[in-house]
Amino acid sequence: MAMYNDKVMDHFMNPHNVGEIENADGIGTYGSPICGDMMKISLKIEDDKIVDAKFKTFGCGSAIASSSVATDMIIGKSVEEALALTNKDVLDELGGLPAIKEHCSVLADHAIRSAVYDYAQKTGKTYKGLEGFDPNEDEHEHEHGCQIEE
Amino acid sequence: MAMYNDKVMDHFMNPHNVGEIENADGIGTYGSPICGDMMKISLKIEDDKIVDAKFKTFGCGSAIASSSVATDMIIGKSVEEALALTNKDVLDELGGLPAIKEHCSVLADHAIRSAVYDYAQKTGKTYKGLEGFDPNEDEHEHEHGCQIEE
Amino acid sequence: MRRVYLDYSATTPVKKIVLDEMIPYFTEKFGNPSSLYELGASAKTDLNISREKVAKLIGASEREIYFTSCGTEADNWAVIGSARLKKKYGNHIITTKIEHHAILHSCEYLEKNGYEVTYIGVDEKGIVNLKELEDAITSNTILISIMFANNEIGTIQPIKEIGEIAKKHNILFHTDAVQAVGNVDINVKELGVDMLSMSAHKIYGPKGIGALYIRKGLILPSYMNGGAQENKRRAGTENLAGIVGFGKAAELAKEGLDEHIKKITSLRNYFIKEVLDKIPNVYVNGDLEKRLPGNANLTFEFIEGEALLLYLDMNGISVSTGSACSSASLVPSHVLDAIGIPVEKIHGSLRFSIGDFTTKEDLDYTVEVLIKVVDKLRSISSVSNEKGW
Amino acid sequence: MRRVYLDYSATTPVKKIVLDEMIPYFTEKFGNPSSLYELGASAKTDLNISREKVAKLIGASEREIYFTSCGTEADNWAVIGSARLKKKYGNHIITTKIEHHAILHSCEYLEKNGYEVTYIGVDEKGIVNLKELEDAITSNTILISIMFANNEIGTIQPIKEIGEIAKKHNILFHTDAVQAVGNVDINVKELGVDMLSMSAHKIYGPKGIGALYIRKGLILPSYMNGGAQENKRRAGTENLAGIVGFGKAAELAKEGLDEHIKKITSLRNYFIKEVLDKIPNVYVNGDLEKRLPGNANLTFEFIEGEALLLYLDMNGISVSTGSACSSASLVPSHVLDAIGIPVEKIHGSLRFSIGDFTTKEDLDYTVEVLIKVVDKLRSISSVSNEKGW
Ligand SMILES: Cc1ncc(COP(=O)(O)O)c(C=O)c1O
Ligand SMILES: Cc1ncc(COP(=O)(O)O)c(C=O)c1O
Prior knowledge:
The complex is a heterotetramer, with two copies of chain A and two copies of chain C. By secondary structure, chain A is α+β, with helices and mostly antiparallel strands. Chain A has a single domain, classed as Alpha-Beta Complex (Sufe protein. Chain: A), CATH 3.90.1010. Chain A contains five helices and three strands. In chain A, a hairpin with a 2-residue loop joins strand 2 (37-46) and strand 3. In chain A, helix 2 (61-74) packs across helix 5. Chain C has two domains: 4-12 and 257-386, Aspartate Aminotransferase, domain 1, CATH 3.90.1150; 16-255, Type I PLP-dependent aspartate aminotransferase-like (Major domain) (Aspartate Aminotransferase, domain 2). In chain C, 41% of the residues lie in helices and 13% in strands. In chain C, strands 2-8-7-6-5-3-4 form a seven-stranded mixed sheet, sandwiched between helices. A three-stranded antiparallel sheet of chain C has the order 9-10-12. A two-stranded parallel sheet of chain C has the order 1-11. Chains in contact: A-C, A-D, B-C, B-D, C-D. The interface between C and D is large, with 76 and 76 residues. The structure holds pyridoxal-5'-phosphate (PLP) (2 copies). One pyridoxal-5'-phosphate binds at residues 70-72, 75, 100, 102, 147, 151, 176, 178-179, 199, 210, 325 of chain D. One pyridoxal-5'-phosphate (PLP) binds at residues 70-72, 75, 100, 102, 147, 151, 176, 178-179, 199, 201, 210, 325 of chain C.
């Protein structure tokens, strides 16, 4: 598959951390089926540490692979560390995506931030990495989404 | 050779009646090298009958084949019969030429008429077939010649 | 691993018998058809024999066939050439929303150059409405370009009726028949089309050779300026081997047409029935009757098409998301949009196209794989029947 | 009968090693390069490997090569595309009187559409005068298109100097290098050309595939509207096998260039010397040094070229009267006219072009036949040295 590298293909064909955590501490969603990709992530957080993360994604190979690798990357990290994850980090970890697909990597870090925001709302905690973050303002359609390239 | 039929090729490769008759009774020329074809014909005439005809032609395959077949056609004919020869007759006898080359068949009947005209001038004879014929008026460049098709 | 090619609408392999016919034209019979000597003259003869074979496939006469480098060039030439030819009579063109990009982008080019284009819609089955077409005609209309059969959903338009409307209003009528040729019985004389586009690589001929049928008497300005090839209408040294291959492919297509249609239609119907029976939440897009024999365009709810495509590919099965030439683009199909499929479902649509080398076993294998991979992708998906979109 | 092909400038046979490389792309590796699955993706990879080989032949980078259907299309695209691109800066184009019809007729098309074209002349050796070129430049000049090497007389233009002039005046520079590629060492970076046309069938590749080099940064509008192929600049399903053949042919041409030039030049010089020594009233047209290795354009006084061509053909020898694509026309060569050959002598001019499969024995045989048939045709001719024209 010339389109994706082996690592991307591997995460796409055998994604890690697929599913939904029951009684999750934080749940976040990003994207929409209309734009072709939507990721839903649920987190289990203990002592400000992400002990588990699971995702469900509707989307193309890059979206699924990004979801898989991003959940891998945050499990075991502190919440602040997870918030610091950028789509660039996801891209690097995947070893790159085709230019036309790079935007898919945004899916994961946005969904993670939303899930932590949900956790913060419920617990009243504040995080530096959430400063200025507003899940409603950050409308999928505006910022990342449906950025289609002809 | 898809361009010319076998008969044309035969007259072109092995033209009949090539040459110049010494002390010819009539000599005619038609065409010009500038237009790509020029035929010179000399006639031996006895008792108003064409007993011999020879040609020299600068020109393409059709011009040479037309010259060859036309001289064949008039040898043994009366002068009036020879004058009645049209380029259509030449074309028919050759079994046709490519459309783009049909004008080459005009060369022969014009040259024959010029040669007979020369004979008539020298001998003071008149021929029905020469009525209205003026070798000077009939400028190659105007009537047939350099009709180039792009 | 089994290899199952189900993308015959994107391109077809060259049949062996076609390739065998082409080979000598690369090496021994390589003359330039414009050359006067034997090697050139016989190339020209063979070229015209191929022209006749292509003509026969659509009921045209030999002199009405002009070879081009592909279906795209034929489309560009027909649309842009007609626009130039008729510009003193008007500047309005009618086409449809479901044309191939070769037509749509040619129309866009014309729109930037002073022409007006009406893109008429299609119903939910993918068929144009003749009344809408006739209503769109103005005194400025100079060309109607409506595809014969759609490349994504395979729907076949009422070409004969459109031809009658065009004739009634004295408007040129072009049809892009790249997908239809070799799959539908076509007779240009009966259909009243003025121009018709074809492409060899869709009928088991080589890529890089197409043709435009131009009705006798219609003098379309040249789109390729240069030498006197193609009766002075399309310059450029002829793709001799390609033309010979196109000719042979056309001959085979003509000979086997009835059988081809029967066999492929029955395989396609079997496939659709199997998929619909065995996988929930799958829909067929486009009319089921007025349809190319080999086309099955299916929407798999709750999953994204490219992901499904790649899963199938990992299992040796080649299918596509709509048209090949926009496959690298992320724009949702304009064709599925035109028949009213909601965008989220367009993302989950795939085209399976069946061809002469497809077997029932291939399709059984495909259904088997589909059951598994659709299930797996749905288990990953964030949307589902229970939770909704 | 011996068969001697001496019309390599019209077209070349495909080399066996080139054909072998192409074959799999018709049958097994037939995927559409735009398709996402493996069969398509690997086709795309192979296509780009070929692109790299073509790029290397002219010192370009891979992304600067755009495949077209022939040299003619590359010429049309370059000239008409540049004119469209630059129309807001001016409407004046400079070219020469000795261009191929692909350029001349594209210019004529533009003249009918509001552009002005200056056709500069050449000297009696067939070389453009740089001063005349520079004098022709106005503030409206948007494009200079001057061929690299002429197809009839083989003369090579001072491309580098022209490139400098173009750059100085900030004008786009296109060169039709269809005859030069594979016969001259070309490096587009050193030459300063913005666009360069090529065609595979002149370098032992297949007919029906060409390319346009477009300098990085220059965004030429598409001449073929449709799918997103060729980096969205040239639509139409790619002629995959043709491109692979072009790539292989380019690779071979690059590898063997020095030897090819040496060998062919020496054969050509031998041939010319033999003919001039053994047949009276024969002249060579065009510069003897700034010339394609294989080209010998000869005027045989007092005979007509087509007649001579056919006599040679009957003896198995293939040559041409100037360019193949105007061979069916009776118009005397515009190139020989431009170098001042009188019309009656233009009629008696033939182009012999020598290539990789030509042997010394072929040339000896040709000279032998020439002696006989020239003599025979002169004996039939109504003009001669003694009688004059
Ligand atoms: C100088 C030149 N330009 C352009 C062309 C056209 O190339 P093609 O025949 O590939 O269209 C040719 C050859 O025919 C040529 O010799
Ligand atoms: C309907 C339709 N029109 C035009 C084309 C373009 O044909 P080609 O790829 O030969 O340029 C295609 C296929 O790609 C097609 O399916």
